[in-house]
Amino acid sequence: MKPSLPVALCCLLLSSFATSARVAPPAVGFVDLTVQVDAFERVVDTRPLAACRKATLPGARCLPVEDLLAPNRRLANFSGLLWLLGTAGLTGDERLLVIGDDAERRDFVAGLLFLAGQRQIAVLNVRVSGRSAFAAGGGQPRSSVREQVYRAPVRDRHLLLRSELRQLLAGDTPPVLLDGRTEEEYWGVRIRAARGGHLPGARHLASASLKRMRPELLALPEAPLVAYGGDAFEGLAYLARLIALGVDASLYLEGWSGWASDGSLPVDSLSFSRHERS
Questions:
Q1: Does the pLDDT of residue 18 top 70, yes or no?
Q2: Which pairing describes strands 28-31 and 249-252: parallel, antiparallel, or unpaired?
Q3: What is the CATH number of the domain that holds 162?
């Protein structure tokens, strides 16, 4: 795959924001071990290929995160991603169960599937390796050729690129920004990009905290919401968790690393690494 977002992805413009920030379609949900696996038409195992091929749920397809990312955790071109989902036998109309060991890797895949238009996604919220229920046999790797045409309509309303976000923030009614990184990163104490800090006016709502949060405890305004993480990988995991809680948010896809890389863009709590200061 080519390690860059294609022109086609850049054309997925955000057509409009929902008037309610708290109503979202039930496309993503988290489930526990009491779930009936046979209620799902497909199971997707996001662990490394060797682990999936060794033992997983009956009928599971192996879709390791490494297949979905280009170097440096960048998304591969979007048309290639849709083709790849077809090699795993997906059309986008199935009810999927997504499983894995690492929560962020697993939820990244769920977020990507949501953005790609997958009809319904359930995420098993427990580690699967070492459990007897997952020792029925090895998973099936995806094919080298497309088995199905992935034809679900992309949820482009939930996608924002940098130029679009700049335009929205300069408007009369800018969206509410949600920063899903750690508190140290939000305040610029820890830096993993060209600069530290956060987008102007962004609220801190750590992605990790959402795994333990009940929907009724979320206090968010009835306004357009734009979420972002450290990069696209973290952001898509964040989006999956927000959607599962009923938060109708859009995602600034490239995240803080993309915003921080442009020195002309405004930043709150601006900081630089010691190397940069010297």
A1: no
A2: unpaired
A3: 3.40.250.10
